[in-house]
Specification:
The structure holds 2 protein chains of 2 kinds.
Chain A lengths: L2 E2 L1 H20 L2 H30 L2 E6 L3 E3 L3 E9 L7 E7 L4 E2 L10 E8 L3 E3 L3 E7 L3 E7 L7 E4 L30 E6 L11 H7 L3 E5 L8 E5 L8 H21 L3 E7 L2 E9 L2 H8 L17 H8 L8 H20 L3 H13 L3 E6 L7 H12 L3 E6 L11 E4 L1
Chain B lengths: L1 H18 L2 H15 L9 H15 L3 H29 L4
Classes of the chains: A alpha/beta, B mainly alpha.
């Protein structure tokens, strides 16, 4: 139903006041003013409905989902673009309605602009989108109109922990994905998605392709080793490219899902600069992990490290050779080593201590750091990597392509 | 800006009441509301309705009965508007 705005409420109040005045002083002009304002509002309401109907009739929605066959709890990215003829004086926004079993909300976007958001399908089965909500407003009225005729594409969700075979209804044969763990870890299949230009043709799953009458590729979970600790470095701000943060969030979610689905669980450490936002040690529960990741947003750290190297680096620097070329140099090196050792021992490093404690509880052999590596101080990542190296852990940094390497990092991979 | 325009509308209504004459009030009201609108598409549909209401007031020579009649007409109009809105909602929802 249409809702009055502040303006139309004011006009209605004005009409009421004029009607009371007209009755009190028996003034025909005041009665006319009151009545004509009420008629004016009725006419505006009628015109608003006409405009809303014409906008709804011209509405077209183009929605794309990166994967239409996926596991329960897996993230899927939705890109939706709505177009409609916007009547003059009216402001229109379109909000996508995710499937009823999905977690995640779509942002409202003006017609002609593509909105991108991520959903998680929490229940198995075949599902589709709920349509779109047309939010229209002019100076006098506002309304939200639910348009259900834009429900495609259909999404097929496998139960979490069950094998997905990509079969359609009535299929009698085909490949089956099994949960069995081999002695040598190979590639499992995370799901299937429509083929995109540039995909490896070797990943095309011909049986799913034949059943769906469209090219589909397998999405492998990848070759991974050991239960990792996934460290998420939240950027201080979204910056000029919110899409990069969305990709970053998806990469983190995908890594957590992959680790839990294919291995012995993972630990999750979320940091914002030198602050630990969340820590989840050794979890096997996908819901728990996703809940810990839920609602992550850029956070401005309250206490920067100001390029503090941390106790691990100070201790390494303190291990300078004690013997120099001469007597004087030997004495100098002894004093330097003593001073650095004292600093290393006395330096208050709560972040490094917290990371050390987290590593102790997680008991992992590999830490995967996810970071957008924004400009500015990165000493918290240096401290994290150094603390991991002290414990003999392998450190993998996953960052945007072209990012510089950090000290202590074994491998840099592009997100 | 909206508040300022609303205050101007209120001032215009005071003028409409102050002129006393119904014909002058009708002309002034059409001008005031027309000036208030940014987009005057379909404004012609409002003018005959306002003129008709002014004529009814002039014919009756009182204010109570025309106001009661208008309230009844507005009730019918609101019901029609609700019906139209319901049909639009069911059509958009795919039920009709």
């Amino acid at each position: 139903m249409i809702r009055p705005t502040r303006t139309s409420s004011g006009i209605a109040a004005l009409a009421l006041a004029l009607a009371v005045t007209a009755l009190l002083i028996t003034n025909p002009a005041a009665a006319f003013a009151a009545g004509s304002l009420a008629l004016f509002l009725l006419w505006r309401g009628w015109r608003f409905e006409q405009d809303l109907a014409s906008a709804a009739a011209s509405l077209t929605v183009d929605r794309e989902v990166d994967r239409t066959i996926l596991r329960q709890g897996t993230a899927a990215t939705v890109r939706v673009r709505a177009d409609c003829a916007v009547p003059p004086g009216m402001e229109v926004r379109v909000r996508d309605l995710p499937p009823a079993v999905a977690a995640g909300d779509a942002p409202p976007s003006p017609p002609g602009k593509t909105a991108t958001y991520t959903i998680r399908l929490m229940a198995p089965g075949e599902t589709s989108f709920g349509g779109v909500v047309l939010e229209a407003a002019d100076a006098f009225f506002a309304a939200s109109l639910l348009c259900r005729r834009f429900g495609g594409p259909e999404i097929r969700v496998f139960p979490a922990g069950a094998a997905g075979d990509g079969r359609g209804r009535g299929a009698g044969s085909g490949d089956t994905e099994v949960e069995r763990r081999a002695a040598l870890a190979g590639q499992g299949i995370l799901g299937f998605r429509p083929y995109q230009t540039g995909d490896d043709p070797g990943l095309i799953d011909w049986k799913v392709t034949a059943r769906r009458d469209a090219l589909y590729v397998r999405q492998p979970t990848g070759l991974e080793g050991g239960a990792p600790l996934i460290a998420v470095d939240l950027p201080p701000r979204a910056g000029d490219d919110p899409a990069a943060f969305a990709r970053f969030s998806m990469a983190v979610s995908g890594a957590v899902e992959g680790a839990i689905n294919s291995r012995d669980g993972c630990s999750l450490l979320v940091i914002a600069g030198p602050e630990i936002v969340r820590f989840l040690p050794r979890t096997m529960e996908i819901r728990e992990a996703l809940a810990a990741l839920g609602g992550l947003a850029p956070i401005e750290p309250r206490a920067p490290l100001y390029r503090s190297p941390g106790p691990a680096v100070l201790a390494a620097r303190a291990r300078v050779p004690r013997r120099g070329a001469g007597e004087e140099e030997t004495a100098y090196l002894a004093r330097l080593s003593g001073a650095l050792s004292a600093f290393a021992a006395e330096s208050p490093a709560p972040f490094a201590a917290a990371v050390r404690a987290a590593f102790g509880r997680a008991e992992v052999q590999e830490v995967r750091i996810y970071s957008l590596l924004p400009p500015g101080d990165k000493s918290h990542l240096v401290q994290l990597a150094r603390e991991a190296k002290v414990r003999g852990m392998r450190v993998v940094l996953r960052a945007p392509a072209g990012s510089p390497a950090l000290p202590g990092v074994d491998t840099v991979e592009a997100i | 800006m909206t508040d300022r325009r609303f205050l101007l509308l209120c001032a215009g209504e005071v003028l409409v009441v102050a002129v006393g004459n119904l014909a002058a009030a009708l002309i002034l009201q059409v001008i005031v509301l027309g000036a208030y609108l940014g987009d005057r598409r379909g404004y012609w549909a409002f003018i005959p309705a306002a003129a008709l209401f002014a004529a009814v007031i002039a014919v009756f020579g009182t204010v109570l009965l025309p106001l009661l009649g208008l309230a009844a007409a507005l009730g019918c109009g609101y019901a029609l508007l609700t019906l139209y809105d319901y049909r639009l909602t069911t059509w958009a929802g795919g039920e009709a």
